[in-house]
From TrEMBL:
Record-linked SUPFAM superfamilies: OsmC-like
Signal peptide start and end residues: none
InterPro entries on file: KH_dom-like_a/b, OsmC/Ohr_fam, OsmC/Ohrsf
UniProt-recorded name of the protein: Putative redox protein, regulator of disulfide bond formation
Lineage top rank: taxon: Bacteria
Cross-referenced NCBIfam families: PRK10738.1 (NF008009)
UniProt cross-references to Pfam families, sorted A to Z: OsmC (PF02566)
Length: 145
């Protein structure tokens, strides 16, 4: 069976200083900017912050989807991310840690751990891609409602 490639498009337009307007193919936009010491006015996300947020969103989406399919009664989910970058250019991520806080009723630790593992190893494109340069680790806590 032939694989179908999924195309994605985006456009980033310089506004002024270090500010840019990013437009996704889905029609959504956001402002990117840098700190004042780099010509920015701190009006938006930094591009590397956006990469980290993208990984968090991708992972959390997967975890929630997997837990719902496992009939887990999730009422809230948060992923807190911490990353370290190389000291010299290119300042790639060298370490990323994702801490999941999953809240719900009668949640199974085995199911939560499984969902996070499947996301990290099979489904989250962002996490797997960033894992090529960074050590990506995960942990979790379960809270009851």
């Amino acid at each position: 069976m032939a694989r179908v490639m999924v195309a994605m498009k985006a456009r980033v337009r310089w506004i002024e200083g270090a500010a840019m307007l990013a437009e996704a193919g889905s029609g959504h936009t956001l402002v990117l900017d840098g700190p004042p010491e780099h010509g920015g006015r701190n009006l938006g996300l930094r591009p590397m912050e956006l990469l980290l947020i993208g990984m968090g969103g991708c992972s959390e989406f997967d975890v929630l989807h997997i837990l719902r399919r496992a009939r887990q009664d999730v009422t809230a989910c948060v992923v807190e991310l911490e990353a370290e970058r190389a000291a010299s250019d290119p300042k790639v991520f060298t370490r990323i840690h994702a801490h999941f806080i999953v809240t719900g009723r009668d949640l199974s630790a085995r199911q939560v751990e499984r969902a996070i593992r499947l996301s990290a190893e099979k489904y989250c494109s962002a996490s797997i891609m960033l894992g090529a340069t960074a050590e990506v680790t995960h942990d979790y806590e379960i809270r009851s409602t």
